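Input record (one chain):
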Amino acid sequence: MSHTDPDVVAVRELPPGVPDPSDESVSRTWRLMTGRRPAPARVWSRLLVPVTAAAMVVGLAVGAAVVFRPGGLSFGAGGGPSDEKTSEPNLAPPSPEAVAALKAMASTAASIPTTVPPIASGQYVFVHHDGWVVDAGASSESATVEKQDRSYWFDPNGMLLRGVRFGDDPADLGNDANVPPGEVGRSVEVPTPEWLAQLPTDPARLVEVLRGAMDKDAPWSIDHQVWSEMQDFYLKCDLLLSTEVRAALLTAFTSLRGITSSEITIDKRRLVAIRHTERGIGDEILFDPTTGRAVGRRTVDVDSDVTLDPSSPVRLDPGVGYQAIWTQKVVDELYATS
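The corresponding structure, as predicted from the sequence alone:
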């Protein structure tokens, strides 16, 4: 790797107080240092992108400022070939195992009456997120795992982020406050309880709604965009889904191309991981098969050659670079946890 590489220079020359480098730049720099291919750019930056730990991955000291936007975190413009539209979209039919798992969870979800908690003015959806991210440093042969304890407070009117803590430390909210009021309650990115309640319960119609909200000119395929967006959607909204909508979503996913599944165990808890893979990156949503609820997410590099150090505090499955489990509840005020 050249010391004049633009990503390295951009990070090295950051003055104090400037926001972190883009997640794409951090990832590309890591790949350059480890001799691996660049990570693909994301259509939406992620709410759970492990930026602080990713900065440690490349061994560079950067500021802690972050900028939020609907659906995720934004760290500035991307760049490079990963911004190009993929020429190899994953158009494989959903695997039989994934279809069977989704239908089974849909049936389970439909059999469990769900009471959507009422949310009064001034209340928030509180999400506690217990996450881990792989820190490979300058070598892929001795990676460790870093803890990511996150707390989020969402305004149900658009599920906009109003409070966040990384461990005990608050972080900037950025431009979530700048969402035009006319956009709220009109899409999967800025839903309201009312918008969620009116979602179609016909799975065929529901998948049309999800696909129709995606960007046809984005670097990723439509179905990969859907799945990536659903990762953030479930983090914020699972608590607010009715029995009928929850079951319809699970059934609708059986129409998505490129979907696969596996059974995993986290903290002795059996979960079903539904994955969409594109450009060598697998985005997973983790479901509890006993309820059909989404309880977490993972990101998997299918070509990873990283080996975890035996001293790491947790063991992750091969290729997992990021893993999180969440819990949700309605709280009466900002920064309340109960």
